[in-house]
């Protein structure tokens, strides 16, 4: 709520782990935003539904679902995965069927954005960079000086994400929106 009070607006897509409080806040405060559960955290959570000596292929093949070109291809691959593993790992398969939809939201975005917005890796990388840079300084004269460094790093990273086509080319998203509007008309 405080982010909206400080001017946050037009949030369309949120990626996070499956934290109940975070999900509730996103639903209440960012009602128009689509939510994507981080697929990396999802795959880690899948381990809880497998026996210790499980076949490594089951999770590797589940991971491959996230490399499909579009949602239809991912759903076909998922159906084949379910068919293959339901006899051997029914607990895992039931859990995946109940939860995997939360991890496929990124398919609504332009294909070039899939790699970066299906997980929280971009945010985790930023947090690591903040940690690394603040450790170099070690002792800040006051809280404001630390906040200035963190803000500068965030602004620098944000600009790189927007300007560097390797990450998020927002023109692709704008073009996709125009195309969806044309199709709806």
Q: What's the SSE blueprint?
A:
Layout: H1 2-5, E1 13-16, H2 20-29, E2 34-37, H3 39-46, H4 56-63, H5 71-85, H6 90-99, H7 111-117, H8 121-137, H9 143-163, H10 170-184
Parallel strand pairs: 1-2
Helix pairs in contact: 8-9
Describe the protein.
The protein is mostly helical and 185 residues long. It has ten helices and two strands; from the N terminus they run αβαβαααααααα. A two-stranded parallel ribbon has the order 1-2. The two termini are 35 Å apart.
Can you summarize this structure?
The chain is mainly alpha-helical and 185 residues long. 62% of the residues lie in helices and 4% in strands.
Strand element count? 2
Please, how many helices? 10
Distance between the termini: 35 Å
3D shape: globular
- Give the quaternary arrangement of the chains: single chain
In round numbers, the mean pLDDT is 89
What structural class is derived from the secondary structure elements? Answer: mainly alpha
Give the strand content.
under 5%
Helix content: 55-70%
Low-confidence stretches: none
Profile the largest sheet.
2 strands, parallel
Q: H/E order of the elements?
A: HEHEHHHHHHHH
Q: What topology, given as strand order, has the largest sheet?
A: 1-2
Rg calculated over all Cα atoms: 19 Å
